[in-house]
Amino acid sequence: MPWNTAGQYRRRVPLIETRALQKRYDNAVTALADLTVTIEPGVVGLVGVNGAGKSTLIKLALGLLEPTGGSIRVLDLDPVRDAEKVRARVGYMPEHDCLPPDMIAAEFVTHMARISGLPAAMARDRASETLRHVGLYEERYRRIGGYSTGMKQRVKLAQALVHDPELLLLDEPTNGLDPAGRRAMLDLVHRIGTEFGISVVVCSHLLGEIERICTSLVAIDAGRLLRSATLDSMTQVRDLVVVEVDEDVNKLAAALTATGLDVRRHEDRALLVQADSDAVYDTIRDTVADLDLALHRVERQRHQVADLFRDLPRTEEETRVVNATA
Ligand SMILES: Nc1ncnc2c1ncn2[C@@H]1O[C@H](COP(=O)(O)OP(=O)(O)OP(=O)(O)O)[C@@H](O)[C@H]1O
Fold this sequence. Notes:
The protein is α/β, with parallel strands linked by helices. The chain has helices spanning about 55-60, 85-90, 105-115, 120-135, 150-160, 180-195, 205-210, 230-240, 250-260, 280-290, 305-310, 315-325, and strands at about 15-25, 30-40, 45, 70-75, 90-95, 165-170, 200-205, 215-220, 225-230, 240-245, 265, 270-275, 295-300. The strands form three sheets. Strands 5-6-7-3-8-9 form a six-stranded mixed β-sheet, with helices on both faces. Strands 11-12-10-13 form a four-stranded antiparallel β-sheet. A three-stranded antiparallel β-sheet has the order 2-1-4, covered by helices on one side.
């Protein structure tokens, strides 16, 4: 199998790099205002409310649209000038249904592989293999029109994967799916990233939903960058422990600080202690015992990634889905 199974993303060049990127449509709508961002290899969530400019960015990355200002590079290529190379190395799963209902899935995916330049026999093999990877092997000879929404989404994913790209661009892959279908699709996307080493940029207006499968997040709003960060950096900074004692909270703060911990006052009788490792819990327990204090509460306060992106406008649907999957 040509796929890299080492769990390493294949190239270290940025997936997408934009400088003051602008896209103004003919109707005078400015979809991207002044976007400067570097998206590194991994499974990257591109989040923003509907209309934020996510699909426009993806279409610019594919060379389907041209910028009206600034620049964009994909895998260090110019998507317009090097369109053919970009298409060979990038797979695209569009947001809306674009599948021919009268074709059978195996034929359609084979056809897409042929368009990508694979010879007939190889295209057939790759189509079967890819349909197996997305969980449609048994059903591959059925008409697409008879498929459920979840199966159609998988066919869209398969056609994006069939030519073994280095980068997958997925536009709202969970659209139209119920919570179980959403989870299954996201698990699949995660596996593609981790097992095959294919980088993925996955667009979603549901931050709470994609944060669990991503190595980094890029949030855009009204065509501008809101925030870009790796999940690691977020969770490291945000792992805090609340320690509450019945009395002598200042004494405890001083003693914990003396052990080298980062300690802050929190509420009346509680402290917030930064926890970089599990050993912090032992230090807290031992210090409280040494001071002979009555420990009231020790509680990990792992902040949701959403807290760090709280300036990202939320939708009602997001709140509902986050609650349903919690
Ligand atoms: N072809 C077009 N012509 C004119 N305006 C457009 C076109 N495509 C998108 N827009 C507008 O550009 C803005 C950004 O749209 P875009 O589709 O990129 O956002 P999005 O974040 O992907 O949202 P969605 O998930 O709803 O597609 C919106 O105001 C949208 O109405």
